[in-house]
Amino acid sequence: MTLALFLQHIVNALSLGSLYALIAIGYTMVYGILRLINFAHGDIFMLGGYFAFYLVTTFFLPWWVAFIVAISITALLGIGLERIAYRPLRDSPKISVMISAIGASFLIENLATVIFGGRQKGFPIPAFFNKLLKFGSSRDPENVVTVVTISMIIPIVTAILLIILLWIVNKTKTGMAMRAVSTDLDAARLQAIDVDKTISITFGIGSLMAAIGGILWALKYPQLSPTMGIMPGLKCFIAAVLGGIGNIGGAVLGGFLLGFLEIMIIAFLPGLTGYRDAFAFIVLILVLLFKPSGLLGKNQVEKV
Amino acid sequence: MNKKTKTILTAGACVLAVAFIIIANNFFDNFTLRVFNLCAIYIILALSLNLLNGFTGIFSLGHAGFMAIGAYISALLTMSPAQKAVNFYLEPIVPWLANIQIPFLPALLFAGCGAALFAFIIGLPVLRLHDDYLAIASLGFAEIIRVIITNTQNITNGALGLKGLPKYSSTYAVWGCAVLAIIFMVALINSAFGRSLKAVRDNEIAAQAMGIDIAHIKTVSFVISGFMAGIGGALLGHLMQTIDPKMFVFSLTYNILLIVVLGGNGSITGSIIASVVVTVCMELLRFLDGPLNLIFIKTDGLPGLRMVVFSLLLMIVVIYRQRGLMGTNEFSWDYLSKIGLVPRIKNGKEKM
Which of chain B's residues have a Cβ under 8 Å away from the Cβ of A237? Predict the structure, then answer.
């Protein structure tokens, strides 16, 4: 493998890892607060992509307006989802909440199939995201690394969002409320923290991240389908577990590790390409067996 | 109602059921009969998932994987060498499988045992987990199975799937299996083992304090469930006569989960009723996917609308009526006579 090819793989892994990280953040935040796998998170991600698609192709909005509107709608939908599917069950047994989450996920997928159609749609990529940048000496084609702008933009967007998010969580009042609720929901309520509002904000932020992830995903892999959220959704949950669920930095680390693992295994062992979707699950099982708290998670003792 | 009356009623119901199955087999048209048989297969699958979800309190989402294993084992063991040669045109089948052909019954048992063995192996790591982690890990194993089946071209024919499975899933075969499954489940749940299962479900720590070996109970329950799911998968394969890895995606598990939840987590009766109702409704509501003409609303075919209805139903049940149709109650003649569905029979001192 030449250096150029290796660098090419690194770029791909970086952008895939960033996408995973963006989605994993939503999982980890929701899990941190509600101890609930938001199965529908992958479908929120899918909706983000579709809304952007329709705003661009049907309403002819400039892409940046369309993206902002799509992200806002998706974030509101995420808040609505929590209201309808999770809030009524907050004191119910865990199995009921999980069934509700799975049900919500399938409802969104099937609604999307009905409304958007089951056939795949090609996402229109604005020229700005699709330029080819060439690095390296132009005389020697062996040593040229070609990068599409979107592959560079994804990690940058992720980094900016991560900084903003960490600032919100660690420095603002809202963030303090989120941390309080995630430590102990009832104690937080006793401190006059509006728990419902805080949970709504968490879902809003998580869905916003998922929507941005969905749009960036559609820009990089321009194929939309109602089931496109399932696999990334599951993998990003795994990324969140790998990093230590409930920990934002951990989710990002997990996302990048998973992205690199996927790209590098395929790069070095092309024979395993068909097994690509199984890697993440093998990682999950290994993590759960050997370090269930994840790489950056705290060891928690189960309370009786 | 005394014991004798109940026995007579039960015997009568059994005769009626057998008569109905015979009538169905002889007089239903092909399509209706297929749906009728599908009901039986879903009964087996729903019971096997209910054993985990409802009775043991293990929230497993790996059923599609067990079914895939059962379906493929049975298919590969019963297909004729000629049929296999037709299927494997991309890459020839491995020699040790090419000429095997055994009768249906042993193949079915092999399918169940294969799935049970797999359940035992994945149970070792998975059953150490709890709640949502367990769900995701079992789902992960099911996905891994599917990916492996897709990629082992010379054993399973990969993504092309297998076509032309022998049509062994006759009405008597599937309903025979379903009845056996029902009898087995009733016996299991009412045994000491069944009570241990419920104890583990209700409170693991208390159960452990009572001297129940939790790991053992969970593993046995998982293996039995895997066995039944394997049988169900094999029967499904022989009913459809064609299988491919795409059949065994997560939505298959979801359909079974839907039945279990609607029927009542922890009720055998509920699972049976819901299996029949959901399977029949899935077919009856097929018109929703086609063009609709509701005078005011006209649509030209919305594939997926049927599943929207079922997903909505599931959400409503989970949010407003978590116990589903039956909760953890079971069918009993006493209850039926109390609500007046069976004529009240007065006999001596017995009071209704």
Answer: 136
Please determine, for residue B339, whether its predicted confidence score (pLDDT) is greater than 90: no
Q: Which two tokens stand for residue B47?
A: 């019971």
- 10 Å CB burial of residue B278 (0-12, 13-18, 19+) is buried
Q: Which is more confidently placed, B148 or B340? A: B148
Q: Which of B147, B257, B314 sits opposite A277 (nearest CB)?
A: B147
Cβ neighbors of B116 (< 8 A, separation 6 or more) are B223, B224, B226, B227, B230
Question: Closest by alpha carbon to B84, among B166, B147, B170?
Answer: B166
Place of tokens 């577990």: A241
- pTM here is 0.88
Handedness of CA A235, A237, A242, A247 (dihedral sign): positive
Q: Residues 71 to 110 of A: which have CB under 8 A from any B CB?
A: 84-85, 88-89, 92-96, 98-100, 102-104, 106-107, 110
Q: Does A282 touch chain B if contact means CB atoms closer than 8 Å?
A: yes
Q: Tokens at residue A269, please? A: 């062992």
Antiparallel, parallel or unpaired: β A121-122 and A132-135 = unpaired
The pLDDT-based confidence of B291 (bands split at 50, 70, 90) is low
Q: What is the C-alpha radius of gyration for chain A, rounded to an integer number of angstroms?
A: 20
The answer to whether B315 contacts A274, with C-beta atoms less than 8 Å apart, is no
Summarised one tens digit per residue, pLDDT across range B174-220 is 999 999 999 999 999 999 999 999 999 888 889 989 888 999 999 99
Q: Which amino acid is at B150?
A: T
| Adjacent-strand bridge partners of A133 | A147
pLDDT band at B351 (very low <50, low <70, confident <90, very high): very low
Complex-level ipTM: 0.85
Q: Please report which residue ranges of chain B form alpha helices under DSSP H.
A: 3-27, 30-50, 63-78, 81-87, 95-98, 104-126, 131-151, 153-156, 171-189, 192-202, 204-209, 214-240, 250-263, 268-284, 305-320, 333-338
Residues in contact with B20: Cβ distance below 8 Å, sequence separation at least 6, in sequence order: none
For residue B201, how far is the Cα from the chain centroid? Answer: 20
What DSSP letter does each residue of A2-65 carry, written as one string?
-HHHHHHHHHHHHHHHHHHHHHHHHHHHHHHHH----TTHHHHHHHHHHHHHHHHHTS---HHH
A238 CB neighbours in chain B (<8 A) are: 136, 140
The DSSP bridge partners found for residue A195 are: none
B299 membership: H or E segment, kind and range:
strand B297-300
Q: Is A144 exposed, middle or buried (0-12, 13-18, 19+ CB in 10 A)?
A: middle
CB nearest B303 (choices: A100, A106, A113): A113
Hey, is A91 helix, strand or coil? coil
* Cα–chain center distance at B339: 30
Query: What's A86's DSSP letter?
Result: I
Question: How far apart, in whole angstroms, are the C-alpha atoms of residue A301 and residue B227?
Answer: 34
| A239 in Cβ contact with A158 (< 8 Å) | no
Tokens read off for B102: 């055994």
